[in-house]
């Protein structure tokens, strides 16, 4: 009987020892650790501290959108708009954007029509600029070629023997009213009428009509949507040398249009975000293909506010936190191109890292890994290096999307959507994820 009892005690001890070892096993594959023989397991799962860096790697563009229009309405081939003809074009623009354009006053040496150097502000608060805006358009002297009598001088538009044939002026861009060159120019409204329409969401259409009684043809034009003033010129300063001279002297759009095109594009800040460390199969931030949990992803994805979601995650017992201060900055704020956030997390084998950060110029889009997160260890090997390939651009499904960077509801006040969280697929074009964000992780 004692022998039987001793055997049972030894068997029970062996079973407990085996179970204890099972509880301490990590998720590893034989051969991952060269110091272990096949079938051997370490005594405890590895753990460590990790530094995560999120960078905005977007290319910095000076302008939002640009283009040229060289064919009058109703015509089949490029050319100037003569009296009775018009140019029209559509473009995207939102709050904080200005529109600039230039079209040559055809019977001159270097004059052009356009708004001021600051451009036309497309919104006044929530109200878009629409209607007859002719009064906001002026006749400008590019200051690049000496003026002659309009339409008569041997080097004016209709009389010059070739491009750039007049004597250089080496002056500055000025309103023709301030030039005092001794010649008479009709009021702007006697030659052209400029109308601006808006579709109610993100698209404007501008029409420049060369009035039937106009004294001049209008050259093909170049336009640009921008946020900073002086996209095409600054009054009282010399021409930038980027192609305005060619347009104002010869009606040639190529050089200026190419310069603007190369420097135009969508660029967005990346908003403060939230991180969370969790177990395998947990989906603490969202579930792909399911509605938002209502824990705070909506304010993060729509307004860049991670505080509600971070508080909810911590209330559920997760290790979580907020990243909101760019490296080297003294206060919280978004990431602009070249900026980065850095934060530190602790984790061990079997744990995963998830995070979410809003794409600033969007309605409800955010960056993050898939709903399972990023595994911190493979066996005993910690994840290390560039993990951007595991990051996607997600649509929270809480607000209707608009044209990237130009929607009037990108921020508070959008139209509720009540759809599922999924990778963005709204028909709009966005840069590739790795052209906007880089995420790296390093074990400390």
TrEMBL record:
Q: What keywords appear on the UniProt entry?
A: Signal
Classify the source by domain of life: Bacteria
Q: Where is this region: Disordered?
A: 28-48, 146-177
Q: Where is the signal peptide?
A: 1-18
| Compositional bias of kind Basic and acidic residues | 34-44
Keyword Signal attributed? yes
Q: Does the keyword rRNA-binding apply?
A: no
Family matches, as NCBIfam families = NF038123_dom
Q: What is this protein called?
A: Spondin domain-containing protein
Q: Which organism is it from?
A: Mariniphaga sediminis
């Amino acid at each position: 009987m004692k022998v039987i009892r001793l055997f049972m005690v030894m068997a029970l001890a062996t079973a407990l020892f085996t179970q204890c070892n099972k509880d301490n096993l990590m998720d590893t594959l034989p051969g991952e650790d060269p110091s272990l023989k096949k079938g051997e397991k370490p005594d405890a799962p590895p753990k460590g501290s990790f530094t995560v860096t999120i960078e905005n790697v977007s290319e910095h563009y000076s302008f939002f959108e640009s283009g040229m229009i060289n064919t009058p309405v109703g015509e089949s081939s490029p050319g100037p708009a003569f009296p009775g003809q018009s140019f029209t074009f559509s473009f995207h623009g939102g709050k904080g954007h200005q529109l600039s354009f230039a079209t040559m006053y055809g019977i001159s040496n270097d004059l052009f029509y356009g708004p001021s150097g600051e451009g036309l502000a497309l919104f006044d608060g929530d109200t878009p600029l629409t209607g007859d805006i002719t009064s906001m358009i002026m006749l400008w002297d590019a200051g690049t070629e000496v003026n002659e009598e309009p339409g008569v001088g041997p080097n004016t538009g209709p009389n010059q023997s070739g491009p750039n044939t007049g004597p250089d002026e080496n002056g500055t861009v000025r309103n023709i009213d301030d030039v005092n060159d001794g010649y008479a120019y009709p009021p702007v409204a006697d030659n052209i009428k400029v109308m601006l329409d808006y579709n109610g969401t993100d698209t404007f259409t501008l029409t420049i009509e060369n009035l039937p009684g106009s004294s001049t043809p209008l050259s093909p034009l170049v336009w640009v949507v921008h946020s900073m003033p002086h996209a095409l010129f600054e009054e009282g300063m010399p021409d930038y040398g980027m192609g305005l001279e060619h347009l104002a002297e010869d009606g040639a759009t190529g050089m200026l249009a190419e310069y603007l095109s190369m420097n135009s594009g969508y660029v967005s800040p990346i908003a403060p975000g939230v991180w969370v460390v969790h177990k395998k199969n947990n989906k603490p931030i969202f579930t792909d293909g399911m509605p938002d949990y209502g824990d705070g992803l909506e304010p993060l994805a729509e307004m860049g506010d991670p505080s509600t979601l971070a508080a909810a995650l911590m209330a559920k017992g997760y290790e979580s936190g907020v990243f909101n201060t760019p490296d080297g900055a003294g206060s919280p704020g978004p990431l602009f191109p070249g900026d980065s956030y850095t934060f530190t997390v602790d984790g061990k084998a079997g744990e995963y890292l998830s995070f979410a950060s809003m794409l600033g110029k969007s309605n409800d889009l955010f960056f993050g890994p898939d709903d399972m997160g990023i595994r911190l260890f493979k066996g005993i090997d910690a994840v290390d290096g560039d993990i951007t390939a595991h990051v996607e651009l997600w649509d929270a499904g809480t607000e209707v999307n608009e044209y990237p960077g130009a929607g009037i509801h990108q921020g508070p006040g959008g139209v509720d959507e009540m759809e599922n969280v999924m990778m963005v697929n709204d028909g709009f074009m966005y840069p590739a994820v790795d052209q906007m964000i880089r995420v790296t992780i390093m074990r400390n």
